[in-house]
Amino acid sequence: MTTSTADSSPSSPIAAAPAARASTAALPAVRHSWIDNLQGQLFGVVMIAFGMSMLHSLGLIIGQIAGVAFLVTYATGISFGMAFTLINLPFYLLAALRMGAAFTWRTLAAVTAVSVLTNVAGNYISYSHLDPAVGAVLAGLCVGIGLIGLFRHQASCGGMSILATYVQERTGFKAGWLLMGFDLALFATAALFLPMDRVFYSLIGAITMNLFVAWNHRYEWYIAR
Predict the structure, then answer these.
(1) Among 150, 168, 163, 187, which residue's Cα sits nearest to residue 90?
(2) What's the predicted TM-score (pTM) here?
(3) Spatial contact of 204 and 139, defined as CB atoms under 8 Å apart
């Protein structure tokens, strides 16, 4: 029996893959320029606001602080942007202590921009028909890719991720468990105020967002810093 050498040849994709990974790993980290960071942050802000506008049009929520802001909006009638901005205020101090002034200012700018764009989106985008299941998934994907855009360009959308990381560093309690516990409490609370079908679709959107970020925001996949 003859053994084929195609898979071990230099031109074989199977043989080339390890070499390509090794070559990529050997590359020096590339630094983002200020314009790189600016365009990435702008992209992130626009995508998050677009996703939030879909959720708002459907009367849905999403996880973490944005979900709290949606609940406050539905319960009190104040705008999402106002609620989102106010709820994030305590987290800026924590971000300044833990992440530094530059990160805090970028996060403040991102939260403010998302708040403003979500508030005015209804003046430019009309959802005459949007199926809740489709809208929840699309919103989850939009918010997820927007968060990755912010994360990769030294910013965030504030909120519980900062607190969870801080608690993990101080106590050893895993950030992921804290975030999961917060979201479970959030959706349990939402079930007291929203119809169960809205809670269900909201949960679909939140799971979509979290899975997308967990799958794609991986340090080893990204060279530039």
Answers:
(1) 163
(2) 0.77
(3) no
| Exposure class string for 133-149: b at 16+ Cβ within 10 A, else e | eebbbbbbbbbbbbbbb
**Residue pair 207/63 in contact by the 8 Å Cβ criterion:** no
Q: Decide: 114 and 52 in contact? Cβ < 8 Å.
A: yes
Which tens digits make up the pLDDT trace of 10-34? 444 444 444 444 444 555 566 766 6
Residue with structure tokens 């679909």?
204
Whose CA is closest to 58, among 140, 145, 147, 124?
140
Q: Is 188 exposed, middle or buried (0-12, 13-18, 19+ CB in 10 A)?
A: exposed
Helix axes 34-58, 64-76, angle to 10 degrees: 40
Contact by Cβ (8 Å): 173, 163: no
Residue 55's closest CA among 77, 39, 70? 70
